[in-house]
Amino acid sequence: MTTTPKSFSETKHWLRTAETITEALPFMRRYTGRTCVIKYGGHAMGDAELSRIFARDVVLLKQIGINPIVVHGGGPQIGAMLERLAVKSEFVDGLRVTDQATVEIVEMVLSGSINKSIVQAINEAGGTAIGLSGKDGNLIKASKLRRTKHDPESNIEKILDLGFVGEPQEVNPHILMELEQDDMIPVIAPIGAGVNGETYNINADTVAGAVAAAMGAVRLLLLTDVIGVLDKNKELISDLTVEDVKRLQSDGTISGGMIPKLETCTMAVENGVDAAVILDGRLPHAMLLEIFTDRGIGTLIRRE
Ligand SMILES: Nc1ncnc2c1ncn2[C@@H]1O[C@H](COP(=O)(O)OP(=O)(O)O)[C@@H](O)[C@H]1O
Ligand SMILES: CC(=O)N[C@@H](CCC(=O)OP(=O)(O)O)C(=O)O
């Protein structure tokens, strides 16, 4: 059956749709053939309909020649499982202190249920997704995170011991390139393997940034549960340079999970990623609005 527009408003709707597609053309040209790393945060994946929309948008990117790589988090889901198993958990500067029992649960939740549900959603949307953790194909070689924190009482830098929290030492881009060439969509759980066979829990933003840098991505998109980086008056900051980020960090404008997020963006844009964007994963089609319109949403971070 064919349908033709029946009313003036219906015609306007069709015209608007056609205009939107035409508007997207220059952006498609800019991004085609390039890699776009999407960090899908645990907070952003709470709603079933939003998850379906996310999966469809990822497939759409692939369909028009952009290579999406999904790196997912799962902080709230790990938290819920730890609570069920009565394992206590605390965060320092947005990072979960991770002992041996915790790292086993973190790996189970991230590489298991969360990874597979994203893979399944993308496959149901018509794509071919492959789930990986940093252990698969030696994707991420990790080491124990070395971090210090200034102690105002003693005025010295104290070494933080976060247990099995890791940082990527090396990301192997070859396996991801192979998958891209075969039209597959990698979905990565932020788990890394150490040289002595130990398992590391790595912040998902950090993994996304390291993967984006290793792939020379055109964009690193961090989907989260806020509209972007907010200033002290809770207003959205739409653009930031690396210098601006340092200032926001030292004057305390950013805290908690926003700290590793912006550190990641800085690392990524200093290592060959064109730009990083922190945007609201609760907004349907947030990625498409960011990539295919000149309005942009969220906070865009560039080198300078
Ligand atoms: N200046 C800021 N602007 C926006 N969010 C901030 C800021 N400082 C701290 N945050 C916190 O960072 C959180 C996002 O980080 P996180 O909870 O780790 O998200 P995700 O689970 O998506 O990775 C926000 O929900 C907010 O509570
Ligand atoms: C070291 C560390 O904090 N790891 C995170 C890994 C998951 C994650 O980063 O999830 P979100 O992106 O949803 O926050 C954690 O254990 O929660």
UniProtKB/TrEMBL annotation:
Q: What is its EC number?
A: 2.7.2.8
Give the UniProt record's GO annotations in the biological process aspect. L-arginine biosynthetic process via ornithine
Extract the SUPFAM superfamilies matched here.
Carbamate kinase-like
Could you tell me the keywords of this UniProt record?
Amino-acid biosynthesis, Arginine biosynthesis, ATP-binding, Cytoplasm, Kinase, Nucleotide-binding, Transferase
For this protein, what reaction is catalysed? N-acetyl-L-glutamate + ATP = N-acetyl-L-glutamyl 5-phosphate + ADP
Ranges where the Aspartate/glutamate/uridylate kinase domain occurs: 35-279
Give the residue range of the signal peptide.
Answer: none
Instruction: Pull one GO CC term from this UniProt entry.
Output: cytoplasm
Q: What class of enzyme is it?
A: transferase
Spell out the subcellular localization from the entry: Cytoplasm
Residues the entry annotates as binding substrate: 74-75, 96, 201
- Name the InterPro entries for this protein: AceGlu_kinase-like_sf (IPR036393), AcgluKinase_fam (IPR004662), ArgB (IPR037528), Asp/Glu/Uridylate_kinase (IPR001048), NAGK-C (IPR041727)
Superkingdom is Bacteria
The pathway entry for this protein reads as: Amino-acid biosynthesis; L-arginine biosynthesis; N(2)-acetyl-L-ornithine from L-glutamate: step 2/4
One GO molecular-function annotation for this sequence?
ATP binding
Question: Site Transition state stabilizer: which residues?
Answer: 39, 261
Q: Does the keyword Amino-acid biosynthesis apply?
A: yes
Grouped into one coarse class, the protein's main location is cytoplasm
Sequence similarity: Belongs to the acetylglutamate kinase family. ArgB subfamily.
Task: Report the protein's function.
Answer: Catalyzes the ATP-dependent phosphorylation of N-acetyl-L-glutamate.
What is this protein identified as?
A: Acetylglutamate kinase
